Batch of 3 targets.
Target 1
Amino acid sequence: MEQMTKAINTLRIEHITKRFPGVLACDDISLEIEKGEILALVGENGAGKTTLMNILMGLYHPDEGTMYINDKAVHFRSPNDAFAYGIGMVHQQYMLVPNMTVVENIALGYKQAWKGWKLDLQMVRKRIEEVAQQYGLVVDPSAYIWQLSVGEQQRVELVKTLCLGAQFLILDEPTSALTPQETDELISLLKNLSKNLSIIFISHKLQEVKDLSSKVAILRHGKVVFKGNTIDHSSSDIAALMTGHEVVLPHNDAPACTLGPMLQLRNLKVRSDRGFFALDDLSLYICKGEIVGLAGVSGNGQKELAEAINGLRKVESGTILFDGRDIANFNPAQVIAAGMGYIPEERNTEGIVPSFSMKENFILKDTESKQFSSHTFLKKKVINETAEKLRSEFDIRSPNTDVAAGALSGGNIQKVILAREISRNPKFLVAVYPTRGLDMGAAEFIHKELLKLRNDGVGILLISEELEEITNLSDQVAVIFKGKIQKVLPSSEASRRRLGILMAGVKDDEEF
Amino acid sequence: MTKSFKTRYRIVIIILAVLTAMLLGAIILLALGADVIKTYLVILTEPLKNKIGVTEVLLRMVPLTIIALGITVAYRSGIINIGAEGQMAMGILTTTAVALGFPNLPSAVLIPFAILAGAVGGAAWGFIPGFLKAKLEVSELLSTVMLNYIAAQLYTFFLRGPMLDPAELVTGSGTPQSMRLTRNIDLTRFIKGTRIHTGIFIALGLALVIFLLLWKTSFGYKMRAAGASERAARYGGINVPKYLIIAMMISGAFAGIAGSVEIAGVHRRAIEGVTSGYGFSGIVVALFGGLHPAGILPAAFFFGLLIYGADMTQRLVGVPANMVQVLQGIIILVIVATKMILANPYLMQRAEAKWNTLFAKKQTHKEVEA
């Protein structure tokens, strides 16, 4: 039995308005997408993108305005209505059961395969193969989800949505968890898909908006402030419209290493959780007042490196000379006391205690310090004053400093972590994916702070997957591959192409 | 989400939870053929009608409060202590040993000494599961329950053997109990004709101590951080295993103190059945009290009322006192369910959307008027 959804030739929304108490989430929004078009919906966090998508998916009802499919007015009462019209969404968080196979996962939502008490997996498998062939989406139907990489899991989500008969795809930040390679693959895949259907995707990343979309709409404070053809506008135009002011992402062009070494990693060997050497004889030198960007496909030892430096992972052999002292296998408290700052990869679960208030999180590393406690009793007044000061200094948007840190948005959580780490006056900072998933405004802020820190003489190890971030900020770029430093080059010589080749493991890159 | 809606929503959910618990209890009462309303009335009001009733409720509140405070320290530090029953028994044994060994010490010395001994006994029994969890990742659910059995057997062994009342040997009745402890250990019964003793002030004092410890000191901050997010605590330089062990020892010490106070204030000798489920009820009191001393005190009073009221239902309405345990079970289920409902923002969002569609017209009307 085939899906019976009709093709969507045009989808038009007119004057959509949605109010929440005290907030105008969508303010008179009109958009139109035709078959074969890819619309990029960009805007800062809280601009109303998600609300708009939830309206398209039938999760919210607009207070005013109408939606038209093929020029016929439609009203969605629930997501089921949206599915029935062929609108499918791939969420930021994948909805897959890890210990089931690809076929089983897709069969979950595939009602035609439910034959009484039985599940017709054969038929689902056939359908997957059809979709795979039609759209060039390669997936192994018998693979278990946990065996797949993030990029592959996303492909499964796409196949799932298409199997269910989607004619219109909504993708919420589809590249936020992907490596640069996977991102490139996804972009060419989506381009291919768009021949047969329409796509709306939400994004923070200008590069992919430029690469992928045919049309772009920019939301700010619930209003469409700009719509047009992507090809007619430059990246910096779009960036300026997104934040409402001209954004020049800060750029590092100061002279390199003049102050002497701060962190010297020598022949580090560190095991991963699974027992193999995630760092295999890794050596790297970072000076005072220098940013070294560590580029690499994730899973090549970045996480283990950050944890080993910060005393969170055992060092099997090698030394970590920090300001002249070997801190290898110090415990985290000792590393912190030595003057190390650390912005961890998992900002929500590691960088903050989510259930603690913002002000409590500011003192996470300093409960014993003279500044915040005397005879183990915490100094409430000093803590409150410091929290207020940091909140305004770092422009953390929240009603007060008593809110649970976990309730803040990603950008604000990162600012809380940054504020804490910077206010502790570290000698060195390890920053892991510091702007992942953040909007342009927050990313710009964090980049500026990192550069300021650098100019104050602090050494920084910047671990990131965003090549642009690395080349913009770093004095030197080191490429990590399979637990070794592949090469260290001055930022000026680190072209995207050259880094890509090094990241892929090709060592002899002199010819490029 | 507006703040006022959030508060209203929470209040409604909590009221619904209470009604649900009473309704479920009513079903069981009906099955027993009891008069539902009369039973509830007896449980909730009968004990409060005279001086003896009130003081008896307060009397039961003492061990409940102290144990629940200890449970709170453990729970907030990320370890669930189901072993208070055993820790309390160990506390009683060490207290009794001190009282038997030093009967001539003056009260001012003996009482603190005996309570300290109870704390040490309980702490030692709490150390074992804490250590096993911190160093070997042994589930504390298993180890604390197992240690309850061991403590119960040790307790019986000591009461039948080394601590047995010599008078029992003479009369030959062989009731497993210690002799009447020295009067120097007695906690004063400060209202004539009732059993209420100064232990209640110890309980109140300890509630203040726990509040200060957990929320006002860097020590408590670290324990709470370790419990709220182990990874973040580790990242922040907090030695998580160390604080797990310490929290479990404090938790055990409190159960031990509850045992000491119960012996010194009520029974005046170690007998069987002193713990009588306080170790388990203490968990419910701690959860019901929101894992905070300010909530635990009223919660302990409420459970003291339930326990004493249940005795009365047996006499007045013929409903077995075990009914209270059924009610406790229902209350645990309802608390857990309520917590999950309150923690689900989507549910609240949907409730708000419903509310708004139902009453949106009124709102716009008002806006026009304004």
Target 2
Amino acid sequence: MSSDSAGLALLETEGRVARLTLNRPEARNALSLGLLEALHLRVDEVARDTSVSVLVIGGAGKSFCAGMDLKSVLNEPGGAGRLLGSIAELTIKLRRLHAVVVGRVQGAAIGGGCGLACVCDLTTTHPEAKMGYPEVDLGVCPAVVAPWLAEKIGAGRARQVLLMGGTFDGTRAHELGLATHLFAKDRLEAETEALIERLASAAPGALRATRTWLASMGGADLEDAARRGAELSAEVVRGEEAQTELRARFGG
Amino acid sequence: MILVEHEEGVARVTLDRAEKKNALTPAMLRELTAVAAGLDFKTRAVLLTGAGDAFCAGFDLTLCKDDPGAMAALLKGLSQAMRALRRAGAPVVVCAHGAAIAGGCALLGGADVVVTDRGAKMGYPVVRLGVSPAVTSAMLAQAIGPGATRHRLLDPKLFSGADALRSGLAHYCEDDAAGALARADEIARALAAKPPHAVRVTKRWLSELDGSLDDRVLNAALEASLALAGGDEERGRLAALWTKG
């Protein structure tokens, strides 16, 4: 990892709980290639540490994650493809992990950030949080998250959510089943800690076996779909429609 | 009996047989299939609705009175219409106001977004008539999951629009039919204003993922319904309907 990237994702492990923090608050933790690279290395560290039972993912600052940093790769040939390939592999890696993954969403989880929230086993948030997949509004196809979201909330609901684009609040995310736990904003941190404590109180072998079994139920098809989704999404981003929309949004 | 209007990228398709609560005939289903299959790139959203106070009461069973082949033609027509809606390049919004029963409820299987109203009557009460709703099972399972599908296809009881929202069969539920129509219209316009290529590719990808483009599965579901069509049990149950008047 380049020294520039090292601080973009922080990992603290204490006993059976590992805490991973997206640490790019000045960019609302937007997923740049550097941040994704840092996340990959941190998750690899957790994967090697079999004493960890629970991985908690959070974002530094006011927001969990503002989404893919498409702006940073707009003028870089192949950049969007690498970004999308990297997020797809990260979702697969999180899914294959032995530990239970908890996402704590404060503020906002948009696009790729909401994709991360979706692939967690359990996701906590608060009613005012802003979540969703506005990809189609930008001429982009949310193809990487589609298989994970369809698996989590059902194909029919995923169809409505992804085609309609836009964002919704934490209450709606909870109704959809995208967030599993909804807490008052000022209780989010404490209640998430209580959840983590409950999870970590389980017998490690039973928790790991159950987690691994549940994650394997979607089989290799889901992983394959996430990878094909990255290719499809990159192809759409390269197209004229997306380029026009993205340049209008980000300039350049 | 199918009305089509184009307005600012929205194709508004109306089942137009209000005096029969838009009961479906093989000709209507063929027409609906042709409309969905024939949409061009200028169409960015489809709004399917029904004239009058109900979306659709189901198949026009009076056709089965003198024609033992009518049920098979209706089932085939329904299956083709659902597929054509799913394959349309533009997203399909269905406004299921008032009632969406049997074949009318099955049509929702081809929708991307379903709007209804709280008091709407919905359901698949056809096993009572000796008819199997298997034809819609694959699309319904993709929409609401296999457990809820067993519930809805085996129990002939009607359920409300509010129930449909809870199970995921509907995505929006308004207070009354007028509210549902207004909401569906608003959604269709919003979809039509989005970048069309991204929407088209996303719809296709979702359909590839959930298997709703897989003709083997859809044909098998249709065959399961066709196996009973025109049979003695169905003829007997339908004949009892006519004597009851």
Target 3
Amino acid sequence: MDIRAAGITDVGLKREGNEDSFATNDASGLYLVADGMGGHLAGEVASGIAVEMIDKSFQRWISYQPPMEELFGPPDPSLTLLGNYLSSSIRLANRVVYEMAMEYDEYHGMGTTVAALHVAPTLIVAANAGDSRIYMVRNRQIERLSKDHTIVSEQVDMGMMTPEEAETSPLKHVLTRNLGSSQDVDADVYEIEPDNGDRFVLCSDGLTDLVSEEEILMAVLEGDEPYALCKELLDIVLRRGAHDNTTVVTVWISGVEKSKDSPFKKIGLFFADWIIGMQKILKKFKP
Amino acid sequence: MARMILTFNKQVIKEYPLLKESLTIGRNEDNTVVIDNLAVSGYHARVDPAGSDFLLTDLQSTNGTFVNNEKVTSHKLQHGDKVIVGKHVLLFVSSAKGTSATEEDEKMDMDKTMMLDTAKQRELLSQQKGAPADAKTAEKVGVVSFIDSSGLGDIELTKKLTKIGKADTSEIKLSGMMMGSTAATISRRPSGYTISFTGGMAKLKVNGTVVKDTVPLKDFDTIELGSYKFQFYQKDVE
């Protein structure tokens, strides 16, 4: 399987500092976006630590392949081993950010969202905590592989608010889950099979606040290479005022081996080659 | 401890403790209370501690500062006063008759995204619509129920990704010469369950229609894979 990925981040036009962080690790197939919060740029510390910790622990675990019981926190039986590696890395990062926030006055109250994507030949794992998002574009359709952990989206799910009311609510950005605010946290994790031509986008809410899903879909379908896509999306945000830090990471996969070809097709091809080969040989000996 | 509660359309946005230093209100980002609204001036008003009281001063704002609908230049705040800045309302709560203090006296100088813990969430939700604050959507789990003669019965989909096929590693093992090693997968996504055809010669059909890629699953959809037939539904988790 081939992977092409790129990422971009920008402080935006209104904020003093950039509290978003991101990472792309092609070797371990791990892609991360984190949007930090906290007074006096502690958000930058929170998101930076989260990304670093998740990247490093995931990389270590896929190298050493420990069993589920040896990970950080109870294993999740609904996930594969790889899914557990990612979920556990996130749990570990949460604990680190939490402890630091508890320990140091200047980091008190800090936290961060996280959106994580692992791409492997037969498995895709998407995990998130907070309102940073993961999108998949497959067969010219866009689908969200993350759940927004915000008060308003939970109210929409419960039927207490319409999506339109959620969009304009002043509580739009109030989170119900993140890394750093409690001792333990569970990310929402999804696992699916990869498909040829899949394109993924991970982003902080700086993007989705100003760009609709339809527009993201159009840009992804029209993009001719990953970094150009990131730039294109960031440009739209900047043109529209960029009130927040904005981060976009995109991952494109190809060369996925699928057993959709029938075995008879392959046998047929083999014989066809053989027959053509035989004909060539016979031609040489034609009287 | 005295505080100002910022609200908009009767919904609480944020609380600001009134400590020993002044609190400034305006559109500019270096104010204590930043209100990003065109009806609000860059530096609109301020609240200063004065002995045991708090003094509100309008900073010659374009649209004025109102207390309980009266325009003011300078005003000594009383418990329950509603300070109107643009379209936002700041409620003044004095320390003598504070609201039910569920929060600690921490400095809440975080930017717009904040994290609420469960207790605060419930308070906020019940303030808004008077709906039961712990109404939760029931957890459901998908089940495939075999209605053919295979004898496989009901299988709960406990995994996020369920592999169906001939391979030993499949969560649901099916046999047959035409059956793919991984013939189909059922995955649980934020939007619900979906089924995808992945390989082999045995065809995947949902409600009679051949599926070559992915379709969402609804309760009581009938799925055929090769000679197997099963129904999908979701049940409440006990």
